Amino acid sequence: MIEVRDLVKVFDTRGQVVRAVDHVSTNVAKGEVLVVLGPSGSGKSTFLRCLNGLESFDEGSVAIDGLQLNDPKTDINAYRREVGMVFQHFNLFPHMTVLENLCLAQKVVRKRSKQEREAKARALLEKVGIGQKANEYPSRLSGGQQQRVAIARALSMDPKVMLFDEPTSALDPEMVGEVLDVMKTLALEGMTMVCVTHEMGFAREVADRVLFFDHGKLLEDSPPESFFTSPKDLRAQAFLRQVL
Amino acid sequence: MIKHKKAQWPWHGLTALVLVGLAVSLYYATSVISYEWRWSRVPQYFAYQAEEAQRAAGYGKVEAIVQQGSMAKVILRDEDGGEQVLDVEQSSLQLSKGDDVAEGDLIGVTRHWTAGPLAWGLWTTVWISLASGVLGLLVGLVAGLCRLSNNPTLRDLSTVYVELVRGTPLLVQIFIFYFFIGTVLNLSREFAGVAALALFTGAYVAEIVRAGVQSIARGQSEAARSLGLSASQSMRHVVLPQAFKRVLPPLAGQFISLVKDTSLVSVIAITELTKSGREAITTSFSTFEIWFCVAGLYLLINLPLSHFASRLERRLAQSD
To answer: Where is the ABC transporter domain (chain A) (predicted)?
Structure first.
């Protein structure tokens, strides 16, 4: 479903060149759940943002379901329609109600009828457990509720792949569970997911594979059982000692 | 520390007292220079009864005069038996029944209310403000978005525009528009005036728009783009509505400024409020009264404008 070949992303700030993503290659099969781990600044978020073109990259290629991201013939907006993204800070549109948040892209991009998009939005809100908040503004919701709306918003486009960029890092601890539950449900339903997260429990329980990044390099790519019990890379071992 | 809520009204009372004191001292000051206030001269500059002469169309006789209240219906019969009926003011009637009239003879006058110069000036100021405000908003929106564009030419051009307009006096711009561009392109003075004001306002609106758009967190457009919205769709549906809410106060200030700046187009002989005030003074000699009235009329436009802006602000704040 996702093919990443020799991806390189270089940040050049005032002559200081940093390879945020350094020759990363990986494949994600349909229905697979990837969890990306690594210390902060390891390039895992940049890697994720490269997957839907929010960050441009310098070398390599990314393809989702056969669509080449760096092919000039690819319509970037058509590409992004197939890739849902959930952000650390939710990024809900504050001037719109929850329902409008879910309907905007369906209307503008997918050109769905009012009836169709509202039915879809309400069904998704029920699914993430906040059906009764459809007409509230985001500012009236708790962080956990906002993040669940953000997930529902991304799902409203019927994406083939979902990307999660530290979806629980900005949440109060008691709200982390409700968001992870939604993500688990999605994983069980067979959604292809790439999650950058610090939730080790989630990684252990849900992930099919764990990717470990440090200094832009993909150092380890293994199933969670072997990653958490016997990591091969030294830096992965050090990282696990600190977080577990 | 516990903050006690204090009653506000004594302070508002003090405010009122200060204002009354100012008014009294103003009155005293004018009495020192022995200015004679003649407010009764002012109303005619807002509206007055214009007289219109009613004249006979040809030779004939006054056949009948029918009184209808303060009006009189005069029926004239010419030599061919043709009839002319004129309604005139009873008090202005010059003839009686049986009188001969010649073509062009004054039969009497009719009176009707007509807007005076200050009323016309107010209207001119309103429509010039409105026209240049709407145009200025459009120009400013486009220029502001160009300043944020990825295209270097668009960015450069809009920067040049903003810097040129903000760096030169509006008065000079109006002269250039009227005497130079107006002559070359054969523009009417109103067109030149509105164009100069619109371009002037546009430059400031451009900066307001740019600041507003830049103040919206990048995550908003990233979220929109990640849903498949194009850059312009994301701007239109996500960024601009939020930016508009934020820039409403400076935008309202800009339009209030614009209303006042319209007084400058009087230099190219557009008779707007300030110029009609000046003209009213030359015939009434009531300098103070007229200028106070003119100031009051500008307030009459601007106070509702700022009231409307703050109401809109409150309405948009409902999502906070």
So the answer is: 2-240
- What pTM value is reported for the model? 0.84
ipTM of the modeled complex? 0.92
pLDDT tens-place string over residues B259-301: 999 999 999 999 999 999 999 999 988 898 999 999 999 999 9
Question: Alpha helix locations (H) across chain B?
Answer: 9-32, 117-147, 152-167, 170-175, 182-185, 189-215, 218-226, 231-234, 240-261, 273-284, 287-316
Amino acid identity of A121?
Answer: A
Q: Are strands A83-86 and A2-13 parallel, antiparallel or unpaired?
A: unpaired
pLDDT by residue for chain A (244 residues), tens digit each?
Answer: 899 999 999 998 888 888 999 999 999 999 999 999 999 889 999 999 999 999 999 999 999 998 899 888 899 999 999 999 999 999 999 999 999 999 999 999 999 999 999 999 999 999 999 999 999 999 999 999 999 999 999 999 999 999 999 999 999 999 999 999 999 999 999 999 999 999 999 999 999 999 999 999 999 999 999 999 988 888 999 999 888 7
* Superfamily (CATH H level) for B117-318: MetI-like (1.10.3720.10)
Distance from CA of A233 to the nearest CA of B (A): 34
Q: Count CA within 13 A, CB hemisphere, residue B40.
A: 1
Q: Which of chain B's residues have a Cβ under 8 Å away from the Cβ of A104? A: 224, 227, 229, 237-238
Backbone angles phi, psi at A135, to 5 degrees: -100, 10
Contacts A150 to B, Cβ<8 Å:
223
Backbone angles phi, psi at A13, to 5 degrees: -105, 110
Fold match, B50-114 / B117-318: no
Q: What is the residue extent of each domain of chain B? A: 50-114, 117-318
pLDDT of residue B195: 95
Fold of B50-114: OB fold (Dihydrolipoamide Acetyltransferase, E2P) (2.40.50)
Spatial distance between the Cα atoms of A198 and A205, rounded to a whole number of angstroms: 13
| 3-state SS, one letter per residue, for A109-168 | CCCCCHHHHHHHHHHHHHHCCCHHHCCCCHHHCCHHHHHHHHHHHHHCCCCCEEEEECCC
Domains and CATH numbers, chain A: 26-57+79-243 (3.40.50.300)
Among candidates A91, A108, A137 on the partner chain, residue whose Cβ is nearest the Cβ of B223: A91
* Interchain pair A54, B229: CB under 8 A: no
Q: Who's near A23: CB < 8 A, 6+ residues apart?
A: A6, A7, A8, A59, A60, A217
Task: Determine the Cα–Cα distance for residues B177 and B235; give it in Å rounded to an integer.
Answer: 33
- Measured between alpha carbons, how far is A22 from B26 in angstroms, rounded to an integer? 78
